[in-house]
Write a structure and sequence with these properties.
The protein is α+β, with helices and mostly antiparallel strands. It has 3 helices and 10 strands; from the N terminus they run E-H-E-H-E-E-E-E-E-E-E-E-H. The chain has helices at residues 22-40, 65-81, 196-199; strands spanning 16-19, 52-53, 89-99, 105-108, 115-122, 128-133, 154-159, 163-168, 173-175, 184-193. The strands form 2 sheets. Strands 1-8-5-10-3-2 form a 6-stranded antiparallel beta sheet. Strands 4-9-6-7 form a 4-stranded antiparallel beta sheet, with no helix packed on it. The chain binds fe (ii) ion.
């Protein structure tokens, strides 16, 4: 009766994972850690569960020039993958987070940007995860024999020093509490098309082309 039964996966949500070579990561992370420490010290007291954050202008500071190059290179790779590299992007915000043991970050996304990302400078001895929420509204959730990317409503990515993650800015994510004994240090950033309003926001349909209006 059935000749063929196939699956077509529609609208996948993508998270890009970029790992530096360990030796280069160690070198870069040593420098970044010292710079972040300099910006945050003397550390103000923060409530239990909270963290320290730098101002959001790290991408404009000369000490972070190498880091900016890394983000730009990774973002170009993402843009090529999505075939949108003809539209230049720029970093719109970049800040560091120091999460002591017990600190967590509740679910959020990054409005008014195309891509967001995080780079890990230091990860606690117990490891560290970032948790992404399924962006689709799910109403029926049967318990499968095993959760997979098709049936789970959240997915995580493991972090490690020298790892850079890039994901769509609309994708909601959270960071579970640091359950290790050492600090988790990361640098977050947002990317947006440099000339969005001028070059991309006008209607895409061509009024002279006839019926095919979107
Ligand atoms: Fe975030």
């Amino acid at each position: 009766m059935i000749e063929k039964q196939e699956v077509q996966e529609l609208f996948p949500t993508t998270v890009w994972i970029v790992d530096l070579k360990p030796a280069e990561a160690a070198l870069l992370n040593g420098r970044l850690k010292a710079e972040i420490e300099k910006i945050i010290s003397p550390r103000p007291t923060v409530p239990v569960g909270s963290n320290w954050q730098t101002p959001q202008d790290l991408h404009t500071r000369p000490a972070f020039a190498d880091f900016v190059k890394l983000v730009e290179m990774a973002a170009r790779g993402v843009a090529r993958f999505l075939q949108v590299d003809q539209h230049p992007m720029t970093i719109t915000g970049c800040w560091a987070n120091i999460n002591p043991p017990g600190a967590y970050h509740p679910t959020h996304n990054h409005p008014n940007n195309y891509l967001s990302g995080v780079y890990y400078v230091a990860v606690p001895d117990s490891g560290s995860r970032i948790l992404f929420q399924d962006p689709r509204p799910s109403m029926i959730m049967p318990r499968p024999r095993q959760f997979t990317r098709l049936t789970a409503n959240a997915a995580d990515a493991q972090s490690k020093p020298g790892r850079l993650l890039i994901f769509p800015a609309w994708l909601r994510h959270s960071v579970p509490a640091n359950d290790g004994r050492t600090e988790r240090i990361s640098i977050s950033f947002n990317l947006m098309f440099r000339q969005f309003a001028e070059t991309m926001a006008a209607p895409m349909w061509n009024p002279t082309a006839g019926k095919d209006k979107g």
